[in-house]
Amino acid sequence: MENGHFKVDKKSAIILGATGLTGGFLLQRLLDDDRYEKIKIISRTEIGFSHPKLEEHIGDLLKLESYKSHFLADEVYCCIGTTKAKTPDNSKYKSIDFGIPVSAAKICRFNGIKTFLVISAMGANAHSGVIYNRLKGEMEEAVLNCKIPKTHILQPSLIGGKREEKRMGEWIAKQFMKLFNFLLVGPLEKFRSIHPEVIAGAMVWLANNNYEKARIQSYEIKNIYHKLSNKAR
Predict the structure, then answer these.
(1) Which of 73, 87, 178, 194 gives the lowest tally of CB atoms within 10 Å of its CB?
(2) CA 3 – CA 14 distance, rounded (Å)
(3) For the chain, how big is the Rg over CA atoms in Å?
């Protein structure tokens, strides 16, 4: 207790994928959040700016075990993902989309980190015949098997926003969704594209509030963000 007020311990967080589209929005949100005093990022490239809260570790995410001693925080956010077009080799593709999130979850379990949030995808299914959906589903099951007390797996639909890298198939899909998003109503509304800022906002809310479900679908992510936005007004 200080000056008649109870002192609130500030938190720390780790972000994997902070240089990506959603990870970038998440990083900025956490840096601006007074509840956090340190944000650690582990990535292959530098973020490109400095901040008093920011701690960077540059290295190979495929070798997360080598960062186990740095993997100490209240929360871990995993925003890692690739595409078959960008990573055509199946083995490397699996090492990224499956291997990195699962390794991160295992280290969280080992180090006693009690909150883990990871971005998966709509349609994730460990029994799917589509490799993308199957790997996401297998990743989800492996992460849940780590039994981290507060685990949330976000399953967004197509993520909107502008990427630094070019993903032609994704770009075409985004243009299509811009034209036809408004037609997706009722049962089809869940297929509407979602902005990365919405995902980032929902992730931070989930980390700081009680929410029963582990797997959270795209429309639920939007509902959480809209409640958050309305509360801030």
Answers:
(1) 178
(2) 31
(3) 18
Tell me how far apart the alpha carbons of residues 6 and 21 are, in angstroms, rounded to a whole number.
Answer: 37
Per-residue pLDDT tens for 90-108?
Answer: 888 899 999 999 999 999 9
Alpha helices in the chain, H assignment, sequence order: 21-31, 90-94, 100-111, 131-145, 168-180, 196-208, 218-232
Give the residues across from 57 on adjacent strands.
Answer: 42
Each residue of 11-38: pLDDT tens digit? 999 999 999 999 999 999 999 999 999 9
Cα dist from 49 to 53, 101, 222, whole Å: 12, 25, 29
Domains by residue range for the chain, with CATH? 11-164+195-228 (3.40.50.720)
Average pLDDT over residues 41-53: 93
Q: What percent of the chain has pLDDT over 70?
A: 81
Amino acid at 110: F
- Nearest partner of 156 among 102, 94, 199, judged by Cα: 199
Q: Phi and psi (nearest 5°) for 205?
A: -65, -45
Mean residue pLDDT of the chain comes to 86
DSSP state of 3: T
pTM given for the model: 0.85
